[in-house]
Amino acid sequence: MIIQLNNTITKADYAKVEKVLAENKFSVTEVKTQFDRYLVCIGKKEIDIRSLGHLAGVKDVHIVSDNYQLVSRKWKTEYTKIHLGDGIIIGGKTPVVMAGPCSIESEEQVVKVAQHLHKNNIKIMRGGVYKPRSSPYAFRGTGIEGLKMMYSICKPYGIKIITEVMQESQIKEMLPYVDIFQVGARNSQNFNLLDALGEVDKPVMIKRGLSGTIEELLFSAEYIFSKGNERLLLCERGIRTFETAYRNTFDINALQVLKDKTHLPVIADPSHGVGVRSYVPKLTLSSLMSGCDGVIYEVHEKPEESFSDGQQTLNFLESEELIKKINTVLQIL
Ligand code: PEP
Ligand code: MN
Questions:
Q1: Which of 156, 192, 225, 246 has most Cβ atoms within 10 angstroms of its Cβ?
Q2: Which residues of 201-230 are buried (b: 16+ CB within 10 A; e: fewer)?
Q3: Ligand 1 center–CA 28 separation, angstroms
Q4: Residue of the CA atom closest to atom 4 of ligand 1
């Protein structure tokens, strides 16, 4: 059960609400986000919500039958919109496109990608500076200096930045240069990191874990929301299955299922989802047809020279062709 409180609730009224909940043996977590104040109440007992709804300071009471609560679609009539500034909205009527290299490598590389995005009216650049790599000997990113460089190049173009944060200690120094923090698949259940991102007033995109279920992804989002940050996006990026013909099994089903289960925007990442360049464009278009709120894909001037994930990265020509098709799909939608 979720109780929405008025932000102006008095201490005395709050105590009355607490008393009713204690009498009914609910365990209560208080959540204060950028926008609202909630009590998440977990308990076995049935309760007549009218006994709470009329109390002073209570805005609304919602019974949520899902195990996760705040991210559930059951209590929120409208889908969540994430405002990034400059009129860029995720979760609105028009799906968004985010694109960029797997890794931020050099100034020249980022300038070329920024020009490519700008030319094609793409407003959000992806690019990792802290790279989770299977091998410790692989390229692990250019770190905070790479992010500052990315920011200085993107800013004049009005391009927003989404980049991965791998650990709590990185958050503070990354904060001024980031528009969306990405939690990577390998950190999808790093609960300390999720807790810490709950205290940040920047949107967070959480990727599905390598073998993560849809419910686990929703619980990861619940971690961040329950710590105070409700500006969240979820990303389907493929899961590990018995299939070896491609890198991951892109679970296109998850896009519609997530739209049913949560009010949060849902993003598709076909690049990691399939891991094979030639399959990325059609999966991107299929994702949009499946009703997601946006797509994120990897693009590089010379994918074959890319420091990471070149095999799944589009070149500028392929990206440009894809964008034209995306625009056609958006018109159909
Ligand atoms: C990435 O976005 O480059 C990345 C490492 O993604 P994932 O966490 O989905 O593997
Ligand atoms: Mn990548």
A1: 225
A2: ebbbbbbbbeebebeebbbbbbbbbbbbbb
A3: 35
A4: 184
| 207-235 pLDDT, tens digit each | 999 999 999 999 999 999 999 999 999 99
Residue 68 in any domain: the answer is: no
| 117 and 194 inside one domain | yes
Please tell me if the CB atom of residue 128 comes closer than 6 angstroms to any atom of ligand 1.
yes
Question: Using the 8-state DSSP alphabet, how is residue 209 labeled?
Answer: P
Q: Are residues 137 and 21 in the same domain?
A: no
128-183 pLDDT, tens digit each: 999 999 999 999 999 999 999 999 999 999 999 999 999 999 999 999 999 999 99
77: in domain: no
SS3 assignment, position 289: helix
In CATH, what number is assigned to the domain containing residue 109? Answer: 3.20.20.70
Query: Which atom of ligand 1 is nearest the CA belonging to 185?
Result: 8
Range of the domain at 313: 82-332
Q: State in Å: Cα 276 to ligand 2 middle.
A: 12
Query: Which contiguous run of DSSP H or E holds residue 22?
Result: helix 11-23
Find the 184 Cα to ligand 1 centroid distance in Å: 5
Residue 272 Cα to ligand 2 middle (Å): 6
Residue 255 within any structural domain of the chain: yes
- Going by alpha carbons, the residue nearest to atom 1 of ligand 1 is 102
The pair phi, psi for residue 176, each rounded to 5°, is -65, -15
Tokens matching residue 73:
């679609």
User: What CATH number corresponds to the domain at position 48?
Assistant: 3.30.70.1140
Our count of domains for the chain comes to 2
Nearest to 196 by CA among 233, 231, 219, 167: 167
237 lines ligand 1 (CB under 6 A): yes
Residue 163's H or E segment, with its range, is: strand 160-164
Distance CA 221, CA 182 (A): 12
